[in-house]
Amino acid sequence: MLGLKKLKYKKVFARIINTFMSLPPVVVGLVVALMISRRGPLGYLELLFTPVAMIIAQTLLVTPIITGIIFNNSKERGQIIKQVCKTLGGDRFDTLLLLIKEMRIDILIAVVTGFGRAISEVGAVMIVGGNIRGHTRVMTSFIVMNHSMGNYSTSIAMGIVLLIISFITNSILYNYMAGD
Amino acid sequence: MDIRIKDIVKKYDGKTVLNVENLCLSKGKIYGIIGPNGSGKSTLLKIIAGLEESTKGKILYNNQMLSKVIMKKMTYVSQNPYLFRTTVFKNIAYPLKIRGIDKEFTYKSVKKIMEEFEIDNLQNQLATSLSGGESQKVVLARALIFNPQLLLLDEPTANIDPNTIELIERTIVKINREKNITIFIVTHNVGQARRICDEVIFLKNGTVIEQGKTEDVILKPKNSETKKFLSLEYHMS
Ligand SMILES: Nc1ncnc2c1ncn2[C@@H]1O[C@H](COP(=O)(O)OP(=O)(O)OP(=O)(O)O)[C@@H](O)[C@H]1O
Ligand SMILES: [Mg+2]
């Protein structure tokens, strides 16, 4: 929706979003880890090596991607949709609903891309989560660990599971959003 | 709806593209704007429609300033119409839907207007798969379904075959007579202006060069610029 506002700092915002879209996950992980480590500014929350920390890191990675994709696509078409809605007597709320409806494919692409990034991510998650068994160990960190320990077959098997999950999720998302 | 335009100036990056001192449109009449490309026709329409803000001046709608209530009573159809990614029926029904009109009444109204534009066979087709002429008819039906008091049309029959033009013109005039709505229409087709407009305004470089009864402006233009433009337009069509 940001793409539609006549913001003064829109260009700056677009720059920042574009930069954040391509942030190296390891850097994000490192920054989050520093913030929440015992001696960091948020250390008192004791979040390091917890799932919450991983969620924070993932959110930081994925949000700019989703926002960025929607932002770039909504700039032109969104403006037209907004105008049409206005000329037909729609208010702000109608416009918002219509935008979501009309741009559902763009939103879907953004969400799928974001999801892909999140599920395949390992660097940031390992730094802030620590790959603790039964707690913060996720499939990607499991694969990396088994691979470095020489358990190739286990890591390949897990890789296949990961692929299947990703495939199923994508199919569900597509069916849900594109079907109408 | 009566419209009064007073000293409207529009500048883009310091460049004046529109400068209209005085223009009144009275209720129930059809006005045509003619003029070369880039003369500010679309800009004028968008300002009246409340989509663009003028740099200076004001517009009164039935003696009132622009408001949400007024916005709901008028409509504008752009030069490049946009249809929603859904069926023709849902496209046309949209303005009634956001006004909270019940389903039964909506169904009847949509049916009726589809018949007038001869598009009832397209009801369930996806609007994005229509031909140019069909799209134009759907866009007009969608704009007219909620009985606006002011209709602003930006070249509604560009790239459309003569049969469809005839149907569109006939329907526009019919609705104008029935509902007494004010219509402001940009056209490049001088013949069209003669067929449907009560008055014609000739715009050039953002200013009104000549304005008056259609027959007078088109057959007996006073201004040499208008003469030149008209003879060229006639020659080409
Ligand atoms: N958003 C904008 N920014 C800068 N200049 C603009 C903008 N919109 C329109 N203009 C300029 O204003 C002038 C008038 O444009 P407008 O679209 O009103 O012309 P028009 O009479 O509708 O032309 P046409 O017959 O080609 O549709 C043009 O010179 C155009 O380049
Ligand atoms: Mg134009």
Task: Write a concise synopsis of the structure shown.
Chain A has 180 residues and is mainly alpha-helical.
Could you characterize what this model shows?
- The complex is a heterodimer of chains A (180) and B (237).
- Chain A has 180 residues and is mainly alpha-helical.
- Chain A has a single domain (10-178), classed as Orthogonal Bundle (MetI-like fold), CATH 1.10.3720.10.
- Helices cover 74% and strands 0% of the residues of chain A.
- Chain A contains 8 helices and no strands.
- The longest helix of chain A has 37 residues, at 51-87.
- Chain B is of the alpha/beta class.
- Chain B has a single domain, classed as 3-Layer(aba) Sandwich (Rossmann fold), CATH 3.40.50.300.
- Chain B has helices at residues 41-48, 68-71, 88-97, 103-116, 132-144, 162-179, 190-196, 214-219, 224-236; strands at 3-12, 15-25, 30-34, 56-61, 74-77, 150-154, 182-186, 199-204, 207-213.
- In chain B, the strands form 2 sheets. A 6-stranded mixed sheet of chain B has the order 5-6-7-3-8-9, with helices on both faces.
- The two termini of chain B are 33 Å apart.
- The model of chain B has no long low-confidence stretch (mean pLDDT 93).
- At the A-B interface, helix 3 and helix 4 of A face strand 5 of B.
- Magnesium ion binds at residues 41-42, 79, 154 of chain B.
Secondary-structure blueprint of this entry?
The complex is a heterodimer of chains A (180) and B (237).
Chain A (H helix, E strand, L loop, with lengths): L9 H12 L3 H12 L14 H37 L4 H11 L1 H17 L2 H7 L9 H10 L3 H27 L2
Chain B lengths: L2 E10 L2 E11 L4 E5 L6 H8 L7 E6 L6 H4 L2 E4 L10 H10 L5 H14 L15 H13 L5 E5 L7 H18 L2 E5 L3 H7 L2 E6 L2 E7 H6 L4 H13 L1
Parallel strand pairs in B: 3-7, 3-8, 5-6, 6-7
Antiparallel strand pairs in B: 1-2, 1-4, 8-9
Helix pairs in contact in B: 3-4, 3-5
The complex binds adenosine-5'-triphosphate and magnesium ion.
Magnesium ion binds next to helix 1 of chain B.
